[in-house]
Amino acid sequence: MKKITSILSIMAVSAVFSTSALAQASATATTGSSAVTITPITIVKGADLTFGTFAANGAGTILVNNDNSFAPSGAVTISTTEAAPTSASFTVSGEPSFTYDFSIGNAGTAIVLTSTTANSTETLTISGITTSLTGGTVAAEDLTGAIGADGTQIVYLGGTLTITAAITSAATYKNTSAFVAVVNYN
Q1: Nearest residue to 166 via CA among 18, 58, 49
Q2: Helix residue ranges, H only, the chain
Q3: DSSP code, position 141
Q4: CA 128 to each of CA 39, 46, 163: distance values in angstroms, whole numbers, following the listed order
Q5: Which residues, in sequence order, are bridge partners of residue 78?
Q6: What is this structure's pTM?
Q7: Distance between CA 78 and CA 82 in Å, rounded?
Q8: In DSSP terms, which residues pair with 108 in a beta bridge?
C-alpha cells in the first residue's frame, strides 16, 4: 500500500510540473494606439515697418521702437504732417498656451532700402532689428512667445534706419530684400 501511495504521489507531482510547463509556453498582450493633433502654427503680417517721411540735412538715424514710438537723431527731422513711423506687427496663431520661437530669417544682415526714383542709386540701411511681445525688447533671434488663450499673440518689430550725408534729394525708398518672419512650435 505504501508503494502504491508513493507511485501515486510521484504521478501527481509529475502531472503538476507537466501542466505548469505547458502553461508557460506562450503569452499574449494587447495594446491600444492614439494620436493627438494640434492647431498648426501660422503667422500673418499686420503692418509694415515704416520710417515715415523725413528731411535729412546730413547724416542721422531714425529709431522705430516696438511700441510705435520713434526717435530721430543727427540731422534728420520727421515730418509731422505726413504718416508717422510705425513698427511692424505680426499675428501668430496656433494652439493656446503652446510656446514658439520667432525669428527674422535675415536678422543678422542689414536690410537695404533702394530709391525708387529714376536714375537714383541712393540707399538706406535698416539695422538693429528688435522684437517684443508685451513690452520688453529683445534681439529678433532671441524671441520666445506663448500663444494666448484666444489662440493668438501679436509680435512687434522695430529697427534703426541709417541715413548717410549723401541722401540729398526727395525720393521714396523700398526694401530690396524683405524681412522673413519665421515661427516654430517649441
Answers
A1: 58
A2: 2-23
A3: G
A4: 33, 21, 14
A5: 54
A6: 0.75
A7: 9
A8: none
All three cell numbers of 87 = 513698427
Cell of 37: 493633433
Three cell numbers, residue 173: 525708398
SS3 59: strand
Q: pLDDT of 130-185, one tens digit each?
A: 888 754 555 555 688 888 899 999 898 889 999 988 887 788 888 877 778 889 99
* Cell matching residue 1: 500500500
First CA to last CA distance, the chain: 81
Burial class of residue 38 (count of CB atoms within 10 Å of its CB; 0-12, 13-18, 19+): exposed
| Residues 90, 83: Cα–Cα separation, whole Å | 20
55 and 162 in contact (C-beta within 8 Å)? no
